Amino acid sequence: MLSLPAPAKINLFLHITGRRPDGYHNLQTLFQLLDFGDQLDIEVDSSGVIRVTPTLEAVPPEDNLIYRAARLLQQESGCKMGAAIHLHKQLPMGGGLGGGSSDAATTLMALNTLWQLNWSREKLMFLGQQLGADVPVFIFGHSAWAEGVGEQLTKVEMKSYWYLVLAPDTQVSTATIFAHQGLTRNTHPIKIRAFLEQGGRNDCQTVVEALYPQVKKARLWLAQFADARLTGTGACLFARFDSEADARSVLKQMPAPWQGFVAQGVNRSPLLDKLPSHN
């Protein structure tokens, strides 16, 4: 059995640079991995059955990204083995932290090891893309500059700041945001150096705050202490701090019923440090 992390990510910025003929959007973003996330316990099952516990609220078992990842790998590899997977959920759903995508990535990486498939990381990334645009970056295993639909990844070494991540009491639908007429879709592409020197914005933030006023309320509260931004399509917000103590001081003042956590940005994924084949 393997017990492995499924780390969160935040989008330090998110520019939508165009809409493709297939309906997907071209984007630019910088994924910063965090040292906080979900945890998965994964054990080989010789029966060939895939079992995932517990059942997530409002998510049919066959739609769970963990189950879909395991079944996809099973089908594509022809493997006759199964798996029992237990999820310790810590990341909020619909928060823009990549929780489901990270769970799927950890599942693929773990079963590749446990089933002794020995697939390359590139092959797993291609498979993961079928499950969601954010899955490849978690298999890639490094904070990264991303383009295309998020699959064109370039390693970036970032300073390890501390982040307070705030989750207001709402979930945001990614599909709703990307389908909204008010979404900016023509931001001019930039280079990595330009972002590092001048920064960027989240093109989804205006639409999210218009549709989900709880998100705007939470951002305005967090903005009292530091520059507060939306991650991904939301609903979570984050602010950067120079020290863990500063971040935790603000977390203690967080109003109910919001939730939050403090985490440190990391360049190398904690998953790679725990997976036997990558130590």
TrEMBL record:
<dbReference type="InterPro" id="IPR036554">
    <property type="entry name" value="GHMP_kinase_C_sf"/>
</dbReference>
<dbReference type="GO" id="GO:0016114">
    <property type="term" value="P:terpenoid biosynthetic process"/>
</dbReference>
<dbReference type="InterPro" id="IPR006204">
    <property type="entry name" value="GHMP_kinase_N_dom"/>
</dbReference>
<comment type="pathway">
    <text>Isoprenoid biosynthesis; isopentenyl diphosphate biosynthesis via DXP pathway; isopentenyl diphosphate from 1-deoxy-D-xylulose 5-phosphate: step 3/6.</text>
</comment>
<keyword id="KW-0067">ATP-binding</keyword>
<feature type="domain" description="GHMP kinase C-terminal">
    <location>
        <begin position="193"/>
        <end position="258"/>
    </location>
</feature>
<feature type="active site">
    <location>
        <position position="134"/>
    </location>
</feature>
<dbReference type="GO" id="GO:0019288">
    <property type="term" value="P:isopentenyl diphosphate biosynthetic process, methylerythritol 4-phosphate pathway"/>
</dbReference>
<dbReference type="InterPro" id="IPR013750">
    <property type="entry name" value="GHMP_kinase_C_dom"/>
</dbReference>
<feature type="active site">
    <location>
        <position position="9"/>
    </location>
</feature>
<keyword id="KW-0808">Transferase</keyword>
<feature type="domain" description="GHMP kinase N-terminal">
    <location>
        <begin position="64"/>
        <end position="141"/>
    </location>
</feature>
<dbReference type="InterPro" id="IPR014721">
    <property type="entry name" value="Ribsml_uS5_D2-typ_fold_subgr"/>
</dbReference>
<dbReference type="InterPro" id="IPR004424">
    <property type="entry name" value="IspE"/>
</dbReference>
<dbReference type="Pfam" id="PF00288">
    <property type="entry name" value="GHMP_kinases_N"/>
</dbReference>
<keyword id="KW-0414">Isoprene biosynthesis</keyword>
<dbReference type="GO" id="GO:0050515">
    <property type="term" value="F:4-(cytidine 5'-diphospho)-2-C-methyl-D-erythritol kinase activity"/>
</dbReference>
<feature type="binding site">
    <location>
        <begin position="92"/>
        <end position="102"/>
    </location>
    <ligand>
        <name>ATP</name>
    </ligand>
</feature>
<protein>
    <recommendedName>
        <fullName>4-diphosphocytidyl-2-C-methyl-D-erythritol kinase</fullName>
        <ecNumber>2.7.1.148</ecNumber>
    </recommendedName>
</protein>
<comment type="similarity">
    <text>Belongs to the GHMP kinase family. IspE subfamily.</text>
</comment>
<dbReference type="GO" id="GO:0005524">
    <property type="term" value="F:ATP binding"/>
</dbReference>
<dbReference type="Pfam" id="PF08544">
    <property type="entry name" value="GHMP_kinases_C"/>
</dbReference>
<keyword id="KW-0547">Nucleotide-binding</keyword>
<comment type="function">
    <text>Catalyzes the phosphorylation of the position 2 hydroxy group of 4-diphosphocytidyl-2C-methyl-D-erythritol.</text>
</comment>
<dbReference type="InterPro" id="IPR020568">
    <property type="entry name" value="Ribosomal_Su5_D2-typ_SF"/>
</dbReference>
<keyword id="KW-0418">Kinase</keyword>
